[in-house]
Amino acid sequence: MTVPPGRRERKKAATRQKIADTALRLFLERGYDAVGIREVAAEADVAVTTLFSHFASKEALVFEQDEDFEQRLALAVTGRAPHEPLIPALHREIRALVRHCTADSAAPIWRMIDASPALRRYEESMRLRHAETLAAAIAADPGLSQTTTASRTIARFVIDAYSLAREAADPQGAVDEIFQMIEAAWEAACSSRRA
Fold it and tell me: Are the C-beta atoms of residues 79 and 179 closer than 8 Å to each other?
């Protein structure tokens, strides 16, 4: 049984969300580069130090669900049902993430990200971090018994599947097509370990 968050945690989460929502609104209204951290803090009615206690950088304000996505990817490995194969669990999670990030409401955000070199760099570093976290979860699972290289490779493929599908004309179809290739690569890695 999970314990519901206390008042302090709820208040902290609400402040974080208020900052993120304010920042995104300002960025979309005026342009990412035209808005400073102090403006975001003032508009959200928080101190700059409070803003930075919730977000490490200006770029992190745009990717406010970054940690949640990273945890969801690791949980797709560690929280899957006993004897559930790895790749279908990851496929299901990436489909859900792509569905979220390709909703009509996300289009202006992705246009803003694509137009900003700083945000594109941040997204790339975020993807690499997600891949490393996913690789660590795969490598730590005793039932999978893969090498570090195989774990890192599959993790990179999975993270790239998310990026490629998000940019495709048919994102869900792209996820399915890419995961057929990931499944084949995983099977090849498993077969070479058994040989």
Answer: no
Q: Residue 27 burial (CB < 10 Å; 0-12/13-18/19+)? A: buried
Count of other CB atoms within 10 angstroms of residue 158: 27
Q: How many CA atoms lie within 13 A of 125 on its CB side?
A: 9
CB 48 within 8 A of CB 133: no
Three-state DSSP class for residue 49: helix
Q: What one-character DSSP code corresponds to residue 195?
A: -
3-state SS track over 108-132: HHHHHHHHCHHHHHHHHHHHHHHHH
Say what the pTM is: 0.84
Tokens found for residue 122: 């941040």
Contact 162, 97 (CB under 8 A): yes
Interval 52-77: pLDDT, tens: 999 999 999 998 888 888 999 999 99
